[in-house]
Amino acid sequence: MREPIDQFINRDISWLEFNSRVLDEAADKGNPLLERLNFIAIFSSNLDEFCMVRVAGISSQLDKNFHLIYKNYGYEPRALMVELEHKIRLLVEKQYKYLNREILPELERNSIFISSWERLTSSQKSVATRIMSSEVFPVLTPIGVDQSHPFPLVPNLGLEMLIRLVPAKASPEKFALLEVPPVIPRFIQLESSENGLVYIPAEELIRNHLDMLFSGAEIRECSLFRVTRDMDLSIDEESIADLMTELQIALRKKTKRSVVRLEIAAGMSAKSRKWLLSKLRITPKTAMVQNIKGILNLKSMFALASLQSFPALRNPPLPPLPSPYLSNARDLFQTIRENGPFLIHPPYQSFDPVIKLLEQAADDPAVLAIKQTLYRVSGGSPVVHALVRAARNGKQVSVLIELKARFDEENNILWARELAEAGAHVVYGIAGLKVHCKALMVIRREEDGIHRYVHLSTGNYNDKTARLYTDIGYFSDNPLLARDVSALFNVITGFSSPPDWNKLIVAPFNLLEKILFLIDREASVSTRENPGHIILKINALIDYEVIEHLYRAAEKHVKIDLIVRGTCGLTPYSLAPEAAANIHIVSILDRFLEHARIYYFANNGSPEYYLGSADLMPRNLRRRIETLFPVDSPVLREELDFILKTALADRRKGRVVVGVNQYSKTTDMGEYESTRSQMVLYDYYRKCLQKNTEKNKPSNGNITVFRSVKE
Fold first, then answer.
1. Cα(first)–Cα(last) distance of the chain, in Å?
2. What residue spans define the domains of the chain?
3. What is each CA distance from 17 to 205, 262, 309, in whole angstroms?
């Protein structure tokens, strides 16, 4: 008799398994070398954020009782913290093994050297000293610590040097701190020749020139450390008068927040370690303390991974393709009106149609108003610049900027101010709810009256991430959908009650209820001979109520295919073998970040397809404004079918669940390169564009617009 298996996998334990899959990409020799280094940096960046938010949240619960999540399921914070620390320690050890034993030696074989001071030639040392004197030394600020100089505030994620020294004239031993300034390159280039590129880490350069900073002192030790602070900003929105002001105050205080992780260079002496822990006022029981055997702050490897002078060590470029629906289309409003709804799928296809729609709307005299939600936008965003221009041109511009978008708070505050100064109506969200939906509406006066055009998306209005994240955008002028989007903005910006939606499904009003209904309906029409079918392509599945309904559907013979990039709390192995066999879970990690959400329900031969912003997490379903919207066009459904089938067939980068929180490996799977879904999809869109260009090229050489099917 088998041991019972927990019905749910803990969210944080599952996330660590996801980041382990990210790290495995660094070990995959089928990836070009600099891309493997890039995954080392991604792993570190992910782990930093996990510690700042999730570990910080659990740390705040250590003195509280057992934390129930759903029914009788939950976790005891201290036990969970012990398990997280153990798993993080093992993952970090694996990360440094991949870096030190495989990637760095391979970089040297390809003439890219990250050198210690001792390995430099005399001429390279001369160059290094000159750079130190002219470019690095002027920005350094050593801080001695004694009775008249208190221990300074150590910044979050800063790279710090702890120096133990005896000052001149035989004074007692002292400690000093020195930050490696983020304004200087982390890796300083000393040589670029036929022999290759030679870099020295900034801290290594500084360490070997401490006499410039501590004249006459005896340097006894110099070690590195790095602190991670609690960055989970919690604000009681119900009791404050001004969300922006309160958020700005919270951001100013973030440097003083508690330490949740301390990374220490492995060579730090016991004496220095004890002194540092006391000054930071932490113990191994109040924060994770990690000994690091190698370069600290591997997130900085992004700089080297982006080297452009070694194309053979990088992925071949996949420039975004034009949409076949928009070939030479100068008037997007006419294209949408005459040809019906269409999709774009960045980064395989260009994000430019979204920017073009906004720019055209900003300058079009017939456009009366623009309404848009913004969650994360880029610096120098062409989306925001188009909205600013529209407002200055007299359009009625209303923008919801979600100030609480984690780690983008300061950026969003700046954009909110610029839009408001241009004359736009700027709204900061709804108290208690984060606005995460992606919606854009343009209202235009036409010959037959007011016409509304909408763009809905699975991802942010961010031109930068649109080159890295796979998302699907949907353009339409469907009157019922447009009416729903208008109502959605009224709910967000005013005091309007949610209507009876025509097409949109909106959290927190009816999305959870609808998802459970669709799952249960699939189960109700499913038989052993005619099984139902559910396909969910999402980023995370951790809502335990949804998971329970999926379990019950599997027991009713429903075939369930889950394409879940990240956290997955569902484990088929908690079910009886017959039901477990009906659930197939795959996670795809490749050069693009899988981000699109697609929901498919077979519905006994009358299938339903939905796209949207929502993952199946408690926060998305209960504490955010999210949307799902149906796709009814047969042509667009065929495209979604191809996307889903391609993902499920991926054996090169698709990791399949093979045990409880265990996934198959993709290393040494080169024989399945032809199934690599992201490459298959890029080729699919390339062929669609080529086919449409050849099909619609008239004798005068002009290209007409690819015709969709009107909903």
1. 54
2. 11-313, 324-493, 505-675
3. 36, 22, 34
Residue 172's contacts (CB-CB under 8 Å, 6 or more residues apart) are 166
Cis amide prior to 347 (ω within 30 degrees): yes
Which residue carries 């670029």 as its tokens? Answer: 192
Q: Where are the beta strands (DSSP E) in 508-596?
A: 533-538, 559-564, 583-588, 593-594
Q: Is the pLDDT of residue 527 over 80?
A: yes
Whole-Å CA distances, 91 to 81, 95, 638, 708: 15, 6, 41, 48
Q: How many CB atoms lie within 10 A of CB 147?
A: 5
Amino acid residing at 493:
T
Strands laid side by side in the 425-427 sheet: 342-344, 473-476, 449-457, 439-446, 367-374, 396-401, 425-427
324-493 and 505-675: identical CATH topology? yes
Residue of 436, 451, 549, 595 marked catalytic: 436
- The values of phi and psi at residue 211, to 5°, are -65, -25
The Cα-based distances of 506 to 275, 418, 488, 711 in angstroms read 54, 29, 8, 21
pTM (2 decimals)?
0.92
Whether residue 184 contacts residue 110, with contact meaning beta carbons closer than 8 Å, is answered with: no
Is 436 an active-site residue?
A: yes
DSSP state, 317?
Answer: P
Count other C-beta atoms under 10 Å from residue 245's C-beta: 11
Domain 11-313 has CATH 3.30.1840.10: yes
650 within 8 A of 586, measured Cβ to Cβ? yes
| Cα distance between residue 430 and residue 495, in whole Å | 10
d(C-alpha 694, C-alpha 704), whole Å: 10
Nearest to 523 by CA among 532, 510, 515: 532
State how beta strands 160-166 and 174-179 pair.
antiparallel
What totals of helices (H) and strands (E) does the chain contain, helices first? 21, 30
Cis omega before residue 508 (within 30°)? Answer: yes
Q: Which amino acid, 208?
A: N
Note the pLDDT tens digit of each residue in 671-703.
Answer: 999 999 999 999 999 999 998 877 766 544 443
Superfamily holding 324-493:
Endonuclease Chain A (3.30.870.10)
Could you give the 3-state DSSP secondary structure of residue 326? helix
State residue 403's pLDDT score: 66
CB atoms within 10 A of CB 284: 10
597-634: pLDDT as tens digits: 999 999 999 999 999 999 999 999 999 999 999 999 99
